[in-house]
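Justification of resources, computational component.

The compute hours requested in this renewal are based largely on the per-chain cost of generating structure records like the one below. Each record pairs the submitted sequence with a full structure-token output. That output is archived, and it is also reused by downstream analysis tasks.
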Amino acid sequence: MTVTWEELGWERVATGVGRCRLPGWDCTAGLVIGEGTALLIDSGSGLAEGARLRAQAEELAGHRVTHLALTHPHFDHVFGAAAFAGAEVFGAVGVETVLRGRLGRAELRADALRNGLDPEVADEAVDALVSPRHHVSGEWTLDLGGGRQALLANVGPGHTAHDLAVLVPGSPEVVFCGDLVEESGEPQAGPDAVPPHWPAALDRLLDLGGEDALYVPGHGAVVDAAFVRAQRDALAARFGVSG
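The structure output for this chain reads:
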């Protein structure tokens, strides 16, 4: 008997495309199912959460997760990455400097603890932290088989210096935005944000998806182009960015 997205607590966004909202920080993980392939977008906030995501994704896909895209280097999106052994891991170029460097790892751990992650969970994740093998500097098209493709686009900087978006062509088109877009709260601008460039990053998201796409934020409900545009204008006003 085939399990449904809803039975596993996932939201089906389009044919073969879905996402789930993880507990704790309402972080989104996405899934794109191809022919014998599966692309997971973001990996959760710890190894146990990553393992649960992998098990659910593989149950939905009927085969293993073959690709993992990390939208940006924050603990709630990358700490589960080591649970995806054997998957090809992608990130925006430069993200490896955060995930491999001693200072970057220490800052990730400190941020996780400030936000209430259990120290043992944080330490386990930092010790096993995975850095992307594939570094996206512009756009990278993944052929997932069966006519399914996914376009990985380095659209930052903005929320961080290393923001990656994922466009899944189809009807409708789906754009996984990472934390460049947030629906369940005001977009968070931490010390690694690049505020002057954030509105332009959202312009690039809108160029990718267009008016009829569904935009999946890093936190919160799926939104439309009008929401992204309104958030872009609010960020421009908040940070004093003209144009």
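Residues 45 and 87 are 18 Å apart (CA to CA). The chain is about 30% helix and 25% strand.
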